[in-house]
Structure formats: structure tokens, C-alpha cells
Amino acid sequence: MNVATILLVVMWVYAAVYFIFLLKDVIAHKDEINNEKLPHNIIISLVANFFDTLGIGSYAIATSAWKFTKSNSDDLIPGSLNVSFAIPICVEATIFIKKVQADSLTLVLMIAASVVGAVIGAKMVSKLDITKIRTVMGVALILVAIITLCKINAFGPFGIIGTARGLTGTKLVIGIVANFILGILMTVGIGLYAPCMAVVLLLGMSTDVAFPIMMGSCAYLCPASGFEFIKSGKYHRGAAIPMVISGSIGVLIAGLIVTSLPLTVLTYLVCVVMVVCACMFFHDARKAAR
User: Fold this and answer.
1) How far apart, in Å, do the first and last CA atoms of the chain sit?
2) Is 164 helix (H, G, I), strand (E, B) or coil?
3) Which residues contact 164 (CB under 8 A, 6 or more apart)?
4) What is the pLDDT of residues 150-182, one digit of tens each?
5) How far is 51 from 110, CA to CA, in rounded Å?
6) Contacts of 209 (CB under 8 A, 6+ apart)
7) Distance set, CA 269 to CA 186, 191, 209, 262, 263 (Å)
8) Who's near 140: CB < 8 A, 6+ residues apart?
9) Rounded to 5 degrees, what angle do the CA atoms 135, 231, 77 make?
10) Domain spans of the chain, in order of start
11) 100: CB partners within 8 A, 6+ apart
12) Which pTM does this prediction carry?
């Protein structure tokens, strides 16, 4: 078996253990579960993961949808993202990770770095109060909107065309540190895909190499951080399992049926929504602080 196959096998064994852990937690707290607005959450997960597979990203879309529909408590949003989207991201990685050949050492080390970062980030975020979480989510959405606009306009690192399939020496160290930081940021709602692609391009690697690195990173780090959020109970228990199922369906529809859409205008619209939603988080945080 090659490295890509080994990574996928280990990923799904890990995902199975994670899902059992999640299921046990949901069952153990079934009397506390609130299923209010469950249809909203099912649709949000399906749509967010559908567009994640097509390259827009799921975290910002889901965060904005939850804020506007009030179908998830603000303090549970970071945990809900990492807990409920972990399995759909594994499905996504399965579809795409074997399509691109990347240097094995670079791939494994950058994935491992993101996982360590996510575990540390989840421990920190699960202890934040709602005012701090609202502020962090607002900042996260602004940053994601800026990065997304740079990406669709090929601005900055996104305009660089590299050819390398992997990294060595100082560049490898930079890549590992960068993905470690991105793993931390993933737990507060800043999706890893676009920033990871920027790092890959800045370090001189080919654009397509970003896909196995960023998808592999997310497929491993989401369950890793998800364990921490599940243990602390900082996620939407009532909608978690349904969102896992609908999110996986969204990925399959996008990855195996639709494959591509004219997304430029929609991406601009999503950026506008992200900024508006960020302002709402800032307003609520300031109001709560008073």
C-alpha cells in the first residue's frame, strides 16, 4: 500500500472510533437533548458540506447560517463545526486524496502538525466564555472573507504557480509550523483549506498538492479536536448525528454528481454574508459585555 492508502485506512479506523465515542455521548445525554430547529441544522450541514467539496468552504457558511437562523447557540458553534463536520470531511478526503501525488514526508508531517494544533486549540476554545467566542468568531469570519476574496481573484500567494511536490529543509519546517497554527485556528472557525493553499503556494509547491495536504489535515484534525469538544459537552448534541449524515450526503452529491458549478458570484455573496454575520457577532459580544 502507498502512503495515501495507508492514510485513508488509518483515517477511517480513527473516524469509526470517533463516531462511536460521539454516539455514546449523545445517548448518555439523551434526556438533555434539544431537537428544536433540527430541520434547519440538517439543511445547513448538507449545504455547507456540499459547497465545501466544491471549494467555497463549510465553516463560514455554517457559522453564518447558524447566526442568522438562531438554530445553534453561539458558544456551541466552534464545537459543532468540528464535531459534526468531522465525518463528512473524511468522506471528502476519501474522494480526493488519492487523485494527487504529493511527497509522503511532507504530507504526513503537515497533517500531524495540524492535528497537534487542533487538540491544543480545542482545549482552549472549549473553556472560553460566550463573549470571547463571539469576538473570536467575528474576527474569524472577517479573516475568512478576506482570504476567500484573495483566492477567487488569484491575489497574493494565490497567483503563484509552483511545481514542487514536497518540501525539504527550512521550507518543510515552515510548512509544519504553519499547519500547526492553522490547526489551532480551525477550532475557532477559520477553515483550513484556503490558508493552507496559500502556505503551499508561497512555499513553491504545485496548486494540486494543496488538496491532499489540506483535506488530509482536516480529516485527521476534526476528529482529534472533536474528542475535546465532546468531552466538554460544547457542541449541539441534538443535531450532531443528523448533521453528520446530511453533511456526508452533501459531500457525495458534490463530489460524485455535481463536481463543478459557476461559483464566483456565489462566493462573493458568501463573503458579504460573512462580513454582515461578523458584525452581528461583534454587536452581540459588546452587548453581553455591557
Assistant:
1) 58
2) strand
3) 203, 204, 205, 206, 209
4) 888 888 787 777 788 889 999 999 999 999 999
5) 24
6) 100, 102, 164, 165, 166, 200
7) 22, 18, 28, 13, 10
8) 63, 185, 188, 189, 190, 278
9) 30
10) 3-26+35-289
11) 208, 209, 211, 212
12) 0.83
